[in-house]
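Minutes, project huddle
Topic: does the predicted pose make sense with pyridoxal-5'-phosphate bound?
PN asked that the exact inputs be recorded in the minutes so nobody has to dig through chat later. Recorded below.
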Amino acid sequence: MIHYICSYLKLILYFDHAATTPIHPEVMELVKLYSETHFGNASSLHSYGAKARLAVDQAFHAMAGILNCDAHQIVSTSGGTESNNLVLRGISEKNGFQGHIITSSVEHHSVLHCCERLEELGMRVTYLPVNRDGLIDPNSVQKAITDETLLVSIMMANNEIGTLQPISEISQITKERGVLFHTDAVQAGGSLDCDVERLGVDFLSLSGHKFYGPKGVGLLYMRSARQISPQIIGGAHQSGLRGGTLNTPGIVGMAKALSLAQEHRETENARLIGLRDQLIQDIQKHISGAFLCGHPTQRLPNNAHFCFEKIDGESLLMRLNNRGIAVSSGSACTAGQTDISHVVAALGLPEQIAQGAIRISLGKNNTDTEVSELLVALREEIEAMRGL
Ligand SMILES: *Cc1c(COP(=O)(O)O)cnc(C)c1O
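Predicted holo structure (tokens), as shared on screen:
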């Protein structure tokens, strides 16, 4: 990946916001303030500690307001990966690694690989398939539930193809059957309504860096912590649910980023959907052999994912990178491997189409001029590659 590093400095157009986002300047100010000036340990009894404790409490309350829960139902973690591990491993351990988990075949690796590990430890896991649009059928959840089922874990929005899952429909089923429901909402935090009551979920994961917040901080909402064994053992921080000194700058920054994103959600979504749909239309009109992956309308406002016939996605990514344009060929976690992503594979596309996957994820600084530039570059590079 030396290529990446050499060309990095001349990158001008960034279309990989599903991988991570730049920190918002107002968030950065707070991170700096709570790292440099109010740097106290929130557990300390003196004024430095009190200052940090107050800021953390206010941040938890702000996030609880957005999630429509109590502040004590939120545990702060190091990110989406840890939040997903905490709920999946926490419930499994609490039940002596005996029981059943239902998830989908298109989850993020922090859910899938965690479930594979839990299978080794004794759990039984069902991986539900998706249809061509990447959607899970709520009836398949209903059918998969058994007396042993402890937890259903289905993501709110897919990080590769952007498909939004029918979370409220699934939660009606899990409620009726008395099964706990977790959703990995990491891709949804910046653009969708994450009201846990409206969604009807028992657990929800978020990550700061996916919505212009700091990296290395996330949260897990827990309706009740009774079913969870802590996974990081230390001091009595966070009611013993997650040891470790509170990441005050991260938590304060994440709360600010979430507030900003949710405040501007509707206007920004309308803008992104406009850009996204224009891009999708233009690609379908001007580039042959382009297959839109994910649901045509039930998708993240900022996500356009295509498979280009007779194109190697990674080579196209590198060609665009050489022109100063950053996109993704799959999830950031699988980039560098040559095989087809598990999400695209789950859609059942023929291999010669599936290997030409490119994810374009827009963000708050992208303009229509930039999107037009991307289209030109895509057309030229794809034509050149097919001409070879
Ligand atoms: C990025 C992402 C994660 C992992 O979050 P980190 O904070 O980077 O650990 C988990 N799930 C989804 C859907 C993601 O997009």
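Observations noted during the meeting:
- The two ends are 23 Å apart (CA to CA).
- The domain at 25-263 is CATH 3.40.640.10 (Aspartate Aminotransferase; domain 2).
No decisions taken; revisit at the next huddle.
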